[in-house]
């Protein structure tokens, strides 16, 4: 019993604790300071999460609606596609793109080789030029059945006659196969 009584805090200790708590509370930031900190963080260029989606059931084509990214420096689309067949990427139902590598204008381009099992990567879209057309860079790879990288994808293209405001969707189409359930997409922008 003596031990229990000796372990109790005395009045001096309690008074000191109350003083420390009061000092902490009086030092907390006021609302104006918090608002200024939020404003500063909001104004900084940063990567902002916009949306995420996944394919619910196997399909031959998947249309990814694009979130609003007006005023952003770029839109980033991260993809992890599980599927069969050759998977092609196109914009706004086949809007022509000038492919810098092939120096050809095409309606779509391959992001997954037909004999591979999945494709992962990043599609970066940037407004450019005086007309605000879209510049696209795809950096990805496809994996084989043992999950070894077996095909690198690097594409630079200009999406013709399309701006941030008029680019509304990106299509992923499997030629001779399917885009399987569980394939995922996430959109971010840099403001």
Overall description:
The chain has 191 residues and is of the alpha+beta class. It has helices at 2-7, 11-26, 31-43; strands spanning 47-54, 61-65, 74-82, 86-91, 97-99, 104-106, 109-112, 118-128, 133-143, 149-163, 169-175, 184-190. Strands 1-12-3-8-9-10-5-6 form an 8-stranded antiparallel β-sheet, with no helix packed on it. It has a 4-stranded antiparallel β-sheet with strand order 2-11-4-7, with no helix packed on it. It starts with a helix and ends with a strand. The mean pLDDT is 84.
Radius of gyration: 27 Å
In DSSP terms, counting alpha (H) and pi (I) runs of 4 or more, how many helices?
3
Let me know the number of strands. Answer: 12
Main sheet strand line-up: 1-12-3-8-9-10-5-6
Q: How far apart are the termini?
A: 65 Å
Task: Reconstruct the topology from this structure.
Blueprint: H1 2-7, H2 11-26, H3 31-43, E1 47-54, E2 61-65, E3 74-82, E4 86-91, E5 97-99, E6 104-106, E7 109-112, E8 118-128, E9 133-143, E10 149-163, E11 169-175, E12 184-190
Antiparallel strand pairs: 1-12, 2-11, 3-8, 3-12, 4-7, 4-11, 5-6, 5-10, 8-9, 9-10
Summary tags:
single chain; 191 residues; alpha+beta; 8-stranded antiparallel beta sheet; 4-stranded antiparallel beta sheet; 3 helices; elongated
């Amino acid at each position: 019993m003596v031990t229990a009584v000796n372990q109790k805090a005395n009045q001096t200790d309690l008074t000191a604790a109350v003083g420390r708590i009061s000092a902490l509370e009086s030092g907390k930031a006021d609302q104006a300071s918090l608002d200024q900190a939020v404003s500063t963080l909001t104004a900084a260029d940063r990567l902002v999460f916009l949306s995420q989606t996944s394919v619910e059931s196997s399909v031959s084509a998947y249309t990814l609606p694009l979130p609003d990214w007006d005023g952003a420096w770029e839109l980033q689309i991260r993809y992890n596609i599980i599927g069969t067949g050759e998977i092609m990427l196109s914009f706004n139902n086949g809007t022509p793109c000038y492919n810098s590598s092939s120096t050809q204008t095409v309606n779509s381009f391959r992001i997954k080789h037909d004999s591979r099992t999945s494709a992962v990567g990043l599609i970066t879209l940037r407004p450019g030029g005086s007309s605000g057309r879209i510049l696209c860079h795809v950096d990805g790879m496809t994996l084989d059945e043992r999950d070894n990288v077996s095909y690198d994808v690097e594409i630079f293209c200009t999406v013709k006659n399309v701006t941030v405001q008029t680019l509304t969707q990106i299509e992923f189409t499997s030629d001779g196969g399917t885009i399987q359930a569980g394939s995922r997409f996430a959109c971010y922008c840099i403001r």
